[in-house]
Design the sequence.
């Protein structure tokens, strides 16, 4: 009996009549429908078996007569199993019991759907606005079907985000929304006592672009990969691969091995560029510009390589549902190998030249300390988690594309600080080079004329779920997909790695010096655009409603990341 | 020893020298297979709207200004250069060129418009290209939507481009050569 069947039987036994339906047809995934009263119990059962919480997905299921739905996904990392539990609530009583008291990592996921779907979560410790802008009118829930994707309520003039009072004895230093150390808009109000950081309040979600709503209303299945790629300017093909995998999982489409290898090669090329980019930025943030210049010089070769392989430096546009668009033939493989050889040589020289530099050690050791226990509590992912001794890596735990056939080690460090993150990311550069070389060797064994993409046989049936994870350079990306009519998904949810990692930043900042703020925030390689992807919101737009003092205060506390 | 590290850094920096290109004073040609601005070949296009229906950025518009004339307008300002249109065109009328220097202060500079002479199907009343082949069945398999003009509502602002006086300028549009004879 596979681990999946065993888990399902065990859940059936425990939940009895509360388990309404199950879908085991997808490899590596288990989808179950439960009564909403059993949501917390089910989550607790899964957690007791070692599951890691990933993300919550809410959607409007009124079309099928089931009210509003909430899905929570969990990962069993040692069993390569993803579990999604779904519950419905009637439209006239849109209530769920909150998972957050049991599972702090669910805080944002639930608050997101308070804003976007008008759900209510009983016992949520901090049920405040998270996503919508300060002046968005009450009672308009953008993810509901009747709300058009391009709705723009008129702006309200006198509504603004109000910060909390600083704790006694400390003062506030504002960082952002636009600040030299942040590469995207987000606001941190940092409480300082002298030089020491005593806390921080975060207000983000300023760069929504409504991609998920757009996908569910305007785009079609095969157009979305090219839009998904634009979710992030650094790890774009991660999103297109992950989306394609989610659709392929929902449609039970098996793609060709050659395409899987090509996807793997491109993902690793992207990892190389992202790690080198981060290394450069990290160097720059601590004022060590030699690292910045040299890392980016090395990175440029990778960008040109990607350009000649795919036709563009960054938006590879290589992934389509069912496979890939461009081949990597023998000649191109030779070109990749040659360039990777140069990159490896340059990288070794750079590493040797900086590894003992006092400047780096003084600015990164014991900076941004967060214990392993805390890292588990916040469900951290990616190099930030691996720097804290957690050996989680979706490439190893939930092998996708061709990762089941390549050999590599999950790089971990145990210093629990920014230095650890740096070490992990530098080591992963060499790991990525080795993975690409292995892929190229295997690729040479597959006949060159084997198909790059497979065709779908007939339309994708509606109402099927798909779930997929990909290890982006910054950590695990989760895509949840529910197929719909009209040749487009009914719901597509993207969870970027910054989503869990950012929630832990206030904890990382505690008791550090103010001067280390940029590098600590920078250490998670925050990508606000990926995190904020959900719904088109113009900060200026909203109702003409004037909020009371109390409401304003409630609003202003909404981004306290304690939930 | 950290001073040893500094010396190594110095060595790397001086050995590498200046790597910044002299662009734009010295051109940097795009590599083969680069996805630059798509270019339409009006002698090949049959007006099937496959490109328009599948452009993720919805930046190709088709409009029938009368029963026989169909206008295809490509507005590069929103194009993402994904190359999807070139992939899908059944007639290979679109090529992804290596032109990437597209900055301009006038949208017209990067807009391409072609005028297509269409025939009317006796059976269904839709337009098709008589010159090449009956593509009606193929259209369906491409997901052709007859109302693809409606698709323009996706980004409403862009419809401002499709004014009547713009259509009046049809004299400047490329026309299929073989029909001019
Ligand atoms: S390249 Fe892509 S975005 Fe541009 S017109 Fe073609 S399909 Fe549309
Ligand atoms: S897909 Fe090709 S033939 Fe059809 S309208 Fe576009 S350019 Fe013309």
Sequence:
């Amino acid at each position: 009996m596979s681990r999946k069947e065993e888990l399902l039987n065990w859940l059936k036994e425990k939940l009895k009549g509360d388990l309404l339906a199950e879908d085991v047809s997808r490899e590596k995934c288990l989808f179950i429908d439960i009564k909403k009263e059993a949501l917390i119990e089910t989550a607790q059962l899964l957690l007791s078996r070692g599951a890691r919480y990933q993300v919550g997905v809410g959607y409007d299921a009124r079309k099928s007569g089931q009210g509003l739905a909430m899905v929570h996904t969990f990962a069993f990392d040692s069993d390569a199993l993803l579990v999604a539990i779904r519950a419905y609530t009637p439209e006239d009583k849109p209530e769920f019991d909150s998972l957050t008291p049991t599972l702090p990592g669910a805080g944002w996921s639930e608050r997101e759907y308070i804003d976007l779907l008008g759900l209510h979560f009983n016992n949520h410790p901090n049920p405040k606005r998270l996503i919508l802008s300060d002046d968005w009118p009450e009672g308009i829930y953008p993810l509901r079907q009747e709300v058009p994707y391009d709705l723009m309520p008129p702006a309200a003039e006198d509504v603004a985000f109000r910060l909390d009072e600083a704790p006694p004895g400390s003062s506030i230093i504002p960082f952002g929304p636009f600040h030299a150390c942040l590469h995207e808009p987000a606001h941190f109000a940092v409480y300082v006592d002298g030089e020491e950081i005593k806390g921080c309040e975060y207000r983000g979600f300023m760069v929504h672009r409504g991609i998920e709503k757009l996908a569910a209303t305007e785009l079609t299945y095969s157009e979305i990969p090219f839009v998904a790629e634009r979710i992030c300017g650094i790890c774009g093909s991660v999103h297109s691969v992950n989306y394609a995998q989610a659709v392929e999982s929902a449609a039970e489409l098996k793609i060709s091995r050659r395409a899987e290898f090509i996807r793997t090669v491109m993902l690793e090329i992207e990892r190389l560029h992202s790690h080198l980019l981060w290394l450069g930025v990290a160097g720059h943030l601590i004022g060590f510009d030699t690292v910045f210049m040299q890392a980016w010089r090395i990175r440029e070769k990778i960008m040109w390589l990607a350009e000649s392989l795919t036709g563009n430096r960054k938006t590879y546009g290589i992934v389509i549902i069912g496979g890939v668009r461009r081949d990597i033939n023998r000649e191109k493989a030779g070109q990749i190998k040659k360039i990777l050889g140069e990159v490896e040589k340059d990288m070794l020289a750079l590493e040797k030249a900086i590894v003992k530099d006092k400047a780096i050690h003084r600015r990164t050791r014991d900076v941004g300390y967060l214990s392993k226990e805390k890292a588990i509590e916040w469900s951290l992912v990616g190099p930030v988690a691996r720097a804290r001794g957690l050996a989680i890596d979706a490439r190893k735990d939930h092998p996708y594309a061709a990762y089941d056939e390549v050999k590599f080690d999950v790089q971990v460090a145990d210093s629990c600080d920014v230095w650890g993150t740096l070490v992990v990311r530098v080591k992963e550069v060499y790991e990525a080079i080795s993975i690409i070389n292995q892929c190229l060797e295997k690729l040479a064994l597959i006949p060159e004329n084997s198909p790059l993409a497979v065709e779908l046989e007939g339309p994708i049936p509606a109402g099927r779920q798909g779930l997929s994870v990909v290890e982006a350079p910054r950590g695990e990306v989760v895509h949840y997909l529910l197929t719909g009519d009209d040749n487009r998904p009914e719901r597509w949810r993207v969870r970027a790695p910054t989503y869990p990692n950012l929630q832990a930043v206030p904890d990382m900042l505690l008791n550090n010096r103010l001067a280390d703020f940029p590098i600590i925030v920078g250490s998670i390689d925050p990508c606000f655009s990926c995190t904020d992807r959900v719904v088109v919101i113009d900060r200026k737009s909203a109702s003409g409603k004037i909020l009371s003092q109390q409401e304003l205060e409630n609003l202003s506390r909404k981004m306290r990341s304690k939930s | 020893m950290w001073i040893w590290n500094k010396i190594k850094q110095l060595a790397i920096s001086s050995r590498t020298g200046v790597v910044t290109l002299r662009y734009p004073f010295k051109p940097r040609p795009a590599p083969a297979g680069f996805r630059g601005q798509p270019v339409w070949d009006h002698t090949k296009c049959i007006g099937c709207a496959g490109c328009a229906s599948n452009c993720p950025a919805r930046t190709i518009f088709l409009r029938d200004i009368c029963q026989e004339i169909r206008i295809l307008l490509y507005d590069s300002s929103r194009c993402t250069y994904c190359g999807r249109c070139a992939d899908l065109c059944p007639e290979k009328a679109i090529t992804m060129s290596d032109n990437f220097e597209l900055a301009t202060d006038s949208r017209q500079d990067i807009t391409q418009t072609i005028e297509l002479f269409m025939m009317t199907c006796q059976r269904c009343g839709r337009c098709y290209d008589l010159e090449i082949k009956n593509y009606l069945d193929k259209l369906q398999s491409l997901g052709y939507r007859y109302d693809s003009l409606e698709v323009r509502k996706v980004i409403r602002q862009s419809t401002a481009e499709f004014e009547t006086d713009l259509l009046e300028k049809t004299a400047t549009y490329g026309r299929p050569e073989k029909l001019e004879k």
Observations:
- The longest strand of chain B covers residues 69-75.
